[in-house]
Amino acid sequence: MIEILERYIPKAAVAPVFELIKTNHVYLKIVDERKTRHGDYRKLPDGQHQITVNANLNTYRFLITLVHEIAHLVAFQKYGRSIKPHGKEWKHTFQRLMLPFIRPEIFPQQLLPLLALHFKNPKASSDTDEKLSLALKQFDPPNDKTFIFEIPFGGHFRLYNGKVFKRGNKRVKRFECVEVATGRLYLFNPNAEVEYLS
């Protein structure tokens, strides 16, 4: 397991993450990219705790995602299964588990203040934290994707599923986008990655 972790997370995080996995009896499964999530936790019928994380994540996003999912397991065990998946119990647990990792031996200096800010009140996904998401993206391999906020008003873009949208106005946090084929209105996070058409 240590050799596998060394391929996916920063070296200084390997030993403490291995302890978290061992202590909580986690079955870690590294899977192909899923467009809708970075990772997930589920309790299997045999009682085993399975956590899956996408293999294509950069080392910092992989670490955050893995600890995020372990926090679900720990919060459910401590507070019971009736808590909200990303409620206050999970937030507190995620903060506590993540705190030992927010240090310069693990994360680059430019990420540390953004992580400190994010973990004052962690969101259900680091993707919804615009500044942190952008900062993490610079450690991804280059790709041909564009963020929604970079697309001009009225510009067209395509999702991974082939659907084409036209970008509209920004509401408080999200952008209104109209699906071209149906005329239906959808709201997109500013930092959703899409294929810019024109």
Structural overview:
The chain is an alpha+beta fold and 198 residues long. It folds into 2 domains: 2-137, Zincin-like (2-Layer Sandwich); 146-196, Roll (SH3 type barrels), CATH 2.30.30. The protein contains 6 helices and 9 strands. The protein has a 6-stranded antiparallel sheet, with no helix packed on it. The longest helix is centred in the middle third of the chain and has 21 residues, at 59-79.
Secondary structure layout:
Layout: H1 2-8, H2 14-23, E1 26-31, E2 39-43, E3 49-54, H3 59-79, H4 88-98, H5 112-118, H6 130-137, E4 146-147, E5 156-158, E6 164-170, E7 175-179, E8 185-188, E9 193-196
Parallel strand pairs: 1-3
Antiparallel strand pairs: 2-3, 4-9, 5-6, 5-9, 6-7, 7-8
Helix pairs in contact: 3-4
Can you tag this structure with a few keywords?
21% strand, 198 residues, Zincin-like, single chain, alpha+beta, SH3 type barrels, three-stranded mixed sheet
Structure at a glance:
The protein has helices spanning 2-8, 14-23, 59-79, 88-98, 112-118, 130-137, and strands at residues 26-31, 39-43, 49-54, 146-147, 156-158, 164-170, 175-179, 185-188, 193-196.
Strand order, main sheet: write it out: 4-9-5-6-7-8
Listing every helix as H and every strand as E from the N terminus to the C terminus, the arrangement reads HHEEEHHHHEEEEEE
Specify the CATH architecture of the largest domain.
Answer: 2-Layer Sandwich
- Which fold does the CATH topology of the largest domain refer to? Zincin-like
Mean pLDDT value: 92
Amino-to-carboxy terminus distance: 46 Å
- Given as residue ranges, the uncertain stretches (5+ residues, pLDDT < 50) are none
CATH class of the largest domain: Alpha Beta
Percentage of residues assigned to helices = 25-40%
Count helical runs: 6
Question: Could you tell me the strand content as a percent range?
Answer: 15-25%
Q: Please describe the biggest sheet, giving its number of strands, its sense, and whether it closes into a barrel.
A: 6 strands, antiparallel
Q: How many structural domains in the coordinates?
A: 2
Shape: globular
What is the SS-derived class? alpha+beta
Give me the Rg, rounded: 18 Å
Quantity of strands, as a count = 9
